[in-house]
Amino acid sequence: MNIKKVLRMSVTTLAIGAAAVGCGSKTNTIVTKEATNISSDESVISISDRYDNTKELSAVFPIVNPTPIETDMEKNIQNRLLNGFENWNRGYDAWEKWGDILYTDDSFYNVHGVRLTLKEYQSSMNATLKSSDIQMGNFNNMIICGDWAAIRYDISTTDRQTRKSSDGSVMEFVQFKDYGEELGTRVVEGWAGTKGADFDGLTGFQTDDAKAAQQEALNAIVNTVIPDTLNLKDKYPVTNPTPIETDMAKKIQNAILNDFENWNQGLDAWTAWADTYYDSNLQYHTNDATMTLSDYKTLEKNNAESTNVKRIRFDNMLISGDWAAIHYRITKQDSTTGEKTAGDVMQFLHFKEDGDSVKVTECWTK
């Protein structure tokens, strides 16, 4: 698969980057602070870089489903995300210059499961935007817990040659760090999209050493043995834990862990459990369709005939208000060949209280 084809396949996910994200409309631009870079043709690049413009930018980029943002760190992360949207609207050069503020030389971004350095990520972005115009739609979620953020938003991609457009959505999980007064809040590492069909092609951006390290990590997931314990927090650990403190958050955490446990017990156990975990009026969104609970059960029954999927562990479990965003690792074993591979899943889940527990009313999965 050549690199041009890879870029076409990956255009949705390559166009993202936590606070470097934002593929929005070119209108309603707020000029906040100018940082300029004079090139040989005397062009001027202006970027947005302030911590006191959150209220202004929130009016331009409203969050459809807001959740609490309380600590100073969480407020700084929100601001960096909003400034990232604003800078995207100023074009690739502004976005690239913003990267020097948002990231460090040691930052990484994982695109469809492929771990890229900042320079590799910027190179892929530059190539992508030469062939496609990408516009942001609704900013659906911004869930921030501790030093982590999970965001979900809609995009529209237009081929610059054919002018054909397609709509899609993006999910990202991003870790930030406060580097102090001089450098501020910056990205440590981000994950945009899950391991897909373009995974092998995208590894063309990596060095041989990086490819080998990534394959070793995937092998480790394939060979993971799920602990034999009744403690579900130990059985399905979260690699990057964030605060889970409210009663609602604890109920959501318990429901998610039990969903993992019932899933791994087999199709019959999960099918019965699904009536407890999901609301009867569930809307289950995938890349291809929106399903009812009955539709979703049928889909999983059909999938189970060819592939045995086990849920292994969480990378992230961010819970805020009545929302959760989870990124987790799975293994898939082909029922015919026995081949076992590692993958990952991202979900945004909306819950409602149901007596002493909770139910999922709507779910978005990638």
TrEMBL record:
InterPro entries: NTF2-like_dom_sf
Signal peptide feature range: 1-20
SUPFAM superfamilies per the UniProt record, alphabetical: NTF2-like
The organism's place on the tree of life at top rank: Bacteria
Assigned keywords, A-Z: Signal
Name used for this protein in its record: Nuclear transport factor 2 family protein
Organismal lineage: Bacteria, Bacillati, Bacillota, Clostridia, Lachnospirales
